[in-house]
Amino acid sequence: MNFKENTPFHYPLLFLLAFCTQVQAQKVADSLKNVSYDYMWERYYADTTRAAKVIYTDAIIARTKKEGDTATLIGGYELRSYLYRKNNRDKYLSYLDSIIGLGTITPAYLQPEKAFSEKALFYYKRRNLKKSLENFLKANQFDKKNSKIITYQILWSLAKIKYQLGDKIAALDLYKKNLEDVQKRNSKSKIEELQILFNMSTLYNELGKLDTANYYIDTGLQISKNIENSYHYYNFLANKGINFYYQKNFERSEELLKSSLDSLQRIANKAHVHLYLGKINKELKYSAESLKNLKIADSITDQLRVTDSFYREIYVELIDYYKSRDDLNNQFLYLKKLIKIDSINHNNQIYLNKNLYTDYEIPKLKSERDRIILEIKQKDQKKRIWIIALLAVSILILFGFIYQYQKKKSYQTKFLALVNDRDNHKTEAITKYIKKSSDQIDISEDIINHILVGLQQFEINNDYIKPELTLIVLAKQLKTNSKYLSKVISIKKEKTFVQYINDLRITYAIKKLKDDLSFRKYTLLAIANEIGFKKTESFTKAFKKKAGITPSYFINELKKHPNS
Prior knowledge:
mainly alpha
């Protein structure tokens, strides 16, 4: 007999079913009162039903609370948390907080660092980098036993966060330490090693170190094949295709990417592949196919709601596509997405940079410093002078580290500003005049205009790179006197004659270095002579004053980014 939902039999039947279930559960719970914890632990893992696992953990938690067995209570909370990890965020976090609360005040076998690590991974997977970092730093703080599993999780996730910040070199260093730790443990499971190898190969690809990337890719492919792990095998195969893309072997790259695409299990990895297929087809002039792949990548990022800085490249490519077709509506659409992801990453970057260096790396340096000082004190109390010297040196190193980091970021910012400034070659005469009357300059309007027109032509012809140029020589060239010329440059350009000529030469040098690959191979002296300077020192000084960075740094960065 079938009862419809609204029949009078429906609610009594549900009540009876619930009552019977409760009675049965109570009977099972009563039967567990006198069994050992080991038995309940074994039954928890052996029984596949969620309801049974709840009963076992209820019994463990109730008995440990009554007996005051905090260590086993923490274990019960841990087992219970696993039941809610995927489908009940609040309960999952609540049980982890219970573990942390007990672990921070009780010397139990399970310290709170594991629960902090679990929370950090939970938040990281949901792209909440702030809370993820907070919990990893707390895990690191409590990790007194230097647990290998916890250390692996901390290094792994800090490396991922470093990657998010764009600091790929630091991320690589952390992955190398991670790989060393995993290989020392000599675990039969190769999954952790494969994950690290994959991320390292990705970073080396993006850094342009393609031979090194290829080594890690081939190592990962071989290990995946040996243990018959198709998940990682196809991830490495896709990275192999990306490696060929950077080698500009587009046909081979496309072949490998397409062959791996259907077998990739993580949808985020599929977005990566579609992005590179879009870029490949752009290079091969297949616009329709390029757009198709970029739109698939975009739809995946929308679905995942990701904010990783990597995915901004999808929007950049789509904006570039629609810009070439004067499609303003679609340009605006993807520009909004780009601005949104950039604003999120900018806020994360400010927060994460501050906290990583304040709460993790600087305390680590200080802790190492204190450890060394303590050892010296224990060995020989008479060597206090060495302790003071070491303390001073470590503080200097610390401040030097911070200074170098800030200097590096400042130089990178200035370099990017120079590279992205497409208008920096425009002549001074065209871009800047200070509007002051001829009465203020005490020169007739006709003479001023004559000099300004002459200066404009002088800049257009690039006559300022002549090494023999002086104020008198230029005055003769413009058919005026040096006094008038000097005064017009000083008032209208707000510069001395030397500053005016130096700025023009440096602007010219920056543009030529950006546009001419062979010019980058010149020595600094050859570049200086080419643009009118007689000495390397005067060229370097003028470049630093104008651009805020040295010419050698600018050239080296251009060589690292040949497409800039």
